[in-house]
Design brief:
The structure is a homodimer. The longest helix of chain A has 26 residues. Chain A has two domains: 78 residues, Orthogonal Bundle (Arc Repressor Mutant, subunit A); 119 residues, Tetracycline Repressor, domain 2. The first copy, chain A, contains eleven helices and no strands. At the A-B interface, helix 7, helix 8, helix 10 and helix 11 of A face helix 7, helix 8, helix 10 and helix 11 of B. Chains A, B: It comes from Actinomadura algeriensis. Chains A, B: InterPro entries: Homeodomain-like_sf, HTH-type_TetR-like_transc_reg, HTH_TetR, Tet_transcr_reg_TetR-rel_C_sf, TetR_C.
Chain lengths: 209, 209
């Protein structure tokens, strides 16, 4: 974007701000990016609209984030950092239910909705975004696997239980029901899913197959 | 679309065909619809392009299917009908593995890829398509639930096992891993998923919770 880089030289003076404001500007831009993603999706997202929404100069965005994939990746990553580790109640079922309720809440949060919308077959042709998403999903679920790691340590699950697969086994049905079937995620469904995964983790392997 | 309805009066003579050709024309149009969906997605799909691809007059499409949501719903429904019932080997694990392998194959077939692409948050604003998809997904999985119905009848699963939930528990992790994590679906992963779901279905409920 040489045109924008040229423009940026003219606007540097106007956008320079003292320390605290830089962080606030960054937050405003990343929040606006998530909001725009939710409204129009990645393909239609324009840096111009993000700039307007955040109340900053377009050149400020280009200077700091470079291009659209990098800006979107930065916005997702910033939200990622805000994700809290899973609850540790000492009880596997309660911990897992707490995780599944957080997954359920995620479907109603703009940034997760935007993330889901841009993940999958639709973005396969966008290498930059693809690469960013490839880092974000695993990071998001690395935190959650601790639920199962702790359960194995307590002797609550057999040692051969695979924490990553159990995260997928527990979260997968929620994504499937919500996104593919368009059905609501009731608390009863969450409980039954958690109970099935825990029973499966305890007994898979000790079965006639 | 009154303009098209007017046009259609002029082209009726040109598009009228004997019996067998009508079915072939319908197939050509529905195949072209799936192909276009795969190439450009629902939002950008144009009846004009479908008509060109199928080698038929645009008016033929409007006359028979009415509008874009109806055409797309018809295309999906036609493929739906072609879906075969699940294998009946008499063995739950083998039946379930066979189903999961079909799910895996689906990700590589254009019509399922198109269906997935149009399902989810992106199409929430398109009531006509939404309604069609709401019928197609449940129909697709109604066939698969028979695997678990038969297992309950054979006494291979407890009577309280819920066939619909077990379909979601088994298929969900595949969708999650493939679409959200972008990871490959190995045969080993399918086996472990099937074993976990079967063990869970046998033991959920007879557990300390």
């Amino acid at each position: 974007m040489p045109a924008d880089q040229a423009e940026q030289l003219h606007t540097d003076a106007a956008t320079k701000r003292p320390g605290g404001r830089t962080a606030r500007t960054a937050k405003a831009v990343l929040d606006a990016t998530i909001a725009e993603l939710g409204d129009v999706g990645y393909a239609a997202l324009r840096i111009e609209s993000v700039a307007e929404r955040a109340g900053v100069n377009r050149a400020t965005i280009y200077r700091r984030w470079g291009d659209k994939p990098s800006l979107v990746a930065a916005a997702f990553t910033a939200r990622q950092v805000e994700t809290s580790p899973p609850t540790d109640t000492g009880d596997l079922l309660e911990d897992l239910l707490s995780f599944l309720r957080e997954v359920r809440r995620g479907f109603d949060s703009p940034w997760i909705a935007a993330l889901i919308r841009e993940t999958g077959p639709g973005t396969a042709d966008n290498a930059g975004l693809r690469e960013a998403l490839d880092k974000i999903w695993p990071a998001r679920f690395r935190l959650s696997r601790e639920i199962f790691v702790r359960a194995v340590e307590r002797g609550d699950l057999p040692a051969h239980a695979d924490p990553d697969e159990l995260v997928e086994a527990a979260a997968g049905p929620l994504y499937f029901r919500r996104l593919m079937l368009g059905r609501p995620l009731t608390d009863d469904f969450l409980r039954r899913t958690a109970a099935l995964v825990i029973a499966g983790a305890r007994h898979a392997g000790d079965e006639r197959s």
